[in-house]
Specification:
It is built from eight helices and five strands; from the N terminus they run ααααααβββααββ. The chain is α+β, with helices and mostly antiparallel strands and 216 residues long. It folds into three domains: 3-51; 66-112; 138-213, no CATH class. α5 (85-96) packs across α6. The termini are far apart.
């Protein structure tokens, strides 16, 4: 018996013992008063098993015929063994006029132990910790848009996000290139803090990594 049926049975018992009304039991169970009355009559006549749906354990009315299932499996094994279920169902519909849902075909193939093409597992992407120092990594991108709405020259909005502190900065430039990329205040401040030392800066706009000597 499913949890929902156990809950409904408890409500029906309370209604039969007149602890709550039929209307209250129906509202809590999410049923109409008519449905609740029908279930109460079945429980009175059959006991607790009266709450179970009559068609449980029986084949679905929408079940695909076994003959069609065997035909699909035979066609797949002969013509579409190197296809995935989604593409195979498209070809079955296109060439053989047999409509089958991809998940249904996938289930049939597993039950019949027929191999089929599967998507390769995506590589695991490990979460990268934030950089420790302000200016050590600055993520940036440029947005080409008519920011001045035709009232001036076309400009590019360069946006900068510091990885360590999530500080956001933005400036307008007439182009997107190396000079605007290195003009982030976070990068300049970082260079000033380590004047005369080699400082490893990361600028992941196009996955560039630059070793810069401060003050050079």
């Amino acid at each position: 018996m499913k949890p929902r049926e156990i809950k409904r049975l408890h409500l029906i018992r309370q209604a039969l013992e007149q602890r709550i009304s039929q209307k209250q039991a129906a509202e809590v169970a999410g049923l109409s008063p008519r449905q609740m009355r029908r279930l109460m009559k079945r429980v009175e006549a059959e006991g607790d098993r009266g709450i179970v749906h009559r068609r449980r354990g029986q084949p679905s009315n929408h079940r695909i015929a076994d003959k069609t299932k065997q035909q699909v499996l035979a066609l797949f094994a002969k013509h579409y063994g190197d296809y995935g279920p989604t593409l195979a169902t498209e070809k079955l519909q296109e060439r053989h006029r047999i409509a089958v849902h991809p998940e249904t075909l996938r289930l049939w193939l597993r039950q019949a132990r027929l191999p089929y093409k599967q998507r390769k597992a995506r590589p695991h992407r490990q979460w990268r910790p934030r950089r420790r120092c302000f200016g050590e990594m600055v993520q940036l991108d440029g947005s080409h848009h008519d920011w001045l709405e035709g009232r001036g020259p076309k400009v590019v909005l360069m946006g900068y996000i510091d990885d360590a502190t999530s500080t956001v900065e933005a400036r307008f430039y007439d182009h997107e290139g190396t000079v605007p990329a290195l003009d982030s205040p976070a990068l300049r401040d970082s260079l000033q803090c380590v004047s005369g030392q080699t400082h490893d800066l990361s600028i992941p706009s196009n996955t560039h990594r630059r070793g810069t000597t401060a003050g050079a």
